[in-house]
Structures are given as C-alpha cells and as structure tokens.
C-alpha cells in the first residue's frame, strides 16, 4: 500500500477558533494541514497569510503544514512562509515568471517545493522540474473556493503524473485537491494519488474522526 496521507484544507475550518479546529482535525487522524492562500488577484477570493501560519505554530500545531499558494506574484512572500513554519510550499507555474527560480527560492528558504496544475494546465510544466520538486498538486476543481464538485477528467491526469513520477524514480508526493470525499477517495487513490486534500468533506462533517477513518478505510481496501 502507498503511504497515503489525508490533508484537510483549513479553508473550511472555523476561522473564529482556528487553532482549536486544526488541533481537533489532527487529533481526529489527519496527517497534513493544507493551508490555502488566496489573493483576490490570481484567484477571486482572499484568505490567509504567513501571520496565520505562524499563529498555528505558536498554538502548538506540530504536524506538516502544506502551503498552497494561489497568489501572483509568488516569490516575495516565500521567505515569510518559511519563517512562519511552512513545510511544503506549492505554487501555480502560471503565476510565476521564472518557475525554476521560484522552486529554488522555496528550497533555499528551507521548505519543500511543489508545482500545482489547474484542471486545464498542461503536464509539460513538469518536463523540466521533476528533479527539483517534492510535490505535484493536481487541482480537481478550479482554484478559489471550497465545496466544488470533483472534475472527473483529473483521474486520467493523475494516472499520467503517477507514471511520470514512477519512471523518474523520484520521491515526489502526488496530491489531489478539490471535491474529494468518502465516496470518491478510493478512485482518486487507484488513479495514483497518495495525498488527499479534503476541506468541506471533513470540516462540514459532524464527526471528524469518523470521516477521516472512513476515508482511511477506503484507502486500506485498495488492492
Ligand atoms: C480550492 C482549494 C482547496 C479547497 C478544497 O481552491 O485549493 O484546497 O479548500 O476544498 P474541498 O475539499 O471542499 O473541495
Ligand atoms: Zn488547496
């Protein structure tokens, strides 16, 4: 079995008591904190920045924080997120004028770099990056909002990226983000993903532990 990880997107958490809600989801079995950063420019929504990441660390959150940057420009804010305690930092290549420079900047800042590909983004972005990244994040919705429906054509893309990673023999996490729930997580895993972002499916459920366990049970059952 792959080393599957569940990454709740805190976009759907209760922001009035964010530290407690993130702790609750971790205590319920989540593996990674998915931290969505939106700028009302690259995407039509506005969320949180490094101060909030740093506040979660001060609150005592020790798990991996996976910062998903949906911002343009990208580079200026990277050192701030590194300083604030980010582990992974992923960005959309369309939002950077110099993708390789941004990847290097993330690495030099002490974090693990990753590329995010939108539903209509070409896989050719990966051609010259596989040696230098630790994560590929495939969007299964158009970025900007939680609670959207999974776009089925992503499954085919996941399979293609899995094969690229395996052929390259690289230790790169393949994360999928958007519309993942108990009913479709197994299909997403079978296509080749190993890291599953889920916002509304977890935070809008009444019992985080039960929801995460159901997701992990589905993953366990994959042959
Ligand atoms: C969308 C964000 C996602 C979002 C996922 O732009 O990147 O992480 O919060 O939310 P759900 O799981 O509700 O689709
Ligand atoms: Zn995200």
Please, could you describe this protein's structure?
- The chain is α/β, with parallel strands linked by helices and 223 residues long.
- It has one domain (5-220): TIM Barrel, CATH 3.20.20.70.
- The chain contains eight helices and eight strands, in the order E-H-E-H-E-H-E-H-E-E-H-E-H-E-H-H.
- It has helices at 18-27, 50-59, 78-83, 99-108, 154-168, 185-191, 200-203, 208-220; strands at residues 5-8, 32-38, 64-70, 88-91, 112-117, 135-139, 173-177, 195-198.
- Strands 1-8-7-6-5-4-3-2 form an eight-stranded parallel β-sheet.
- It is globular, with a radius of gyration of 16 Å.
- 42% of the residues are buried.
- D-xylitol-5-phosphate binds at residues 9, 11-12, 34, 36, 68, 141, 143-148, 177-180, 197-201.
List the helices and strands and how they pair.
Blueprint: E1 5-8, H1 18-27, E2 32-38, H2 50-59, E3 64-70, H3 78-83, E4 88-91, H4 99-108, E5 112-117, E6 135-139, H5 154-168, E7 173-177, H6 185-191, E8 195-198, H7 200-203, H8 208-220
Parallel strand pairs: 1-8, 2-3, 3-4, 4-5, 5-6, 6-7, 7-8
D-xylitol-5-phosphate binds near residues 36, 146, 179 and 180.
Provide keyphrases for this structure:
single chain, 223 residues, alpha/beta, binds zinc ion, 34% helix, binds D-xylitol-5-phosphate, 8-stranded parallel β-sheet, TIM Barrel
